[in-house]
Amino acid sequence: MPRSVNSVASRARRKKLMKLAKGYFGRRKNVWTVAKNAVEKGLVYAYRDRRQKKRNFRALWIQRINAGARLHGMSYSQFMGAAKKAGVELNRKVLADLAMNHPEAFKAIVEKVK
């Protein structure tokens, strides 16, 4: 008996992956083997960088808080330690936004924790 191959499913699978390769340069967009490798690598990068993005933003917030705190004579670690003791419930994202866009509000927080 001849071997049965489900070409409908195979084509659908390839079509789905080629759709993900749309917009790539050169053979990466239209040659199956090259596109498959490019898409797989791209998905790996996407997975990795979703986690890296969180690290990068946290580092950015820390730099902004540090710059704002140093304007008022404190280092980042001194400020965060004092804020914890004073019971300030604001996270780094909010503190960084205040330090950058609302310096008077950030100054009030610094004065409160000193």
UniProtKB/TrEMBL annotation:
PROSITE patterns noted in UniProt: RIBOSOMAL_L20
Keyword set includes rRNA-binding: yes
InterPro entries (alphabetical): Ribosomal_bL20, RIBOSOMAL_L20_CS, Ribosomal_protein_bL20_C
Biological process according to GO: ribosomal large subunit assembly; translation
Taxonomy, superkingdom: Bacteria
Cellular-component GO terms for this entry: ribonucleoprotein complex; ribosome
Keywords: Ribonucleoprotein, Ribosomal protein, RNA-binding, rRNA-binding
Chloroplast as UniProt keyword: no
GO molecular function terms noted in the UniProt entry: rRNA binding; structural constituent of ribosome
Listed HAMAP family: Ribosomal_bL20
Similarity comment text for this entry: Belongs to the bacterial ribosomal protein bL20 family.
Function: Binds directly to 23S ribosomal RNA and is necessary for the in vitro assembly process of the 50S ribosomal subunit. It is not involved in the protein synthesizing functions of that subunit.
Protein known as: Large ribosomal subunit protein bL20
Lineage: Bacteria, Pseudomonadati, Bacteroidota, Flavobacteriia, Flavobacteriales
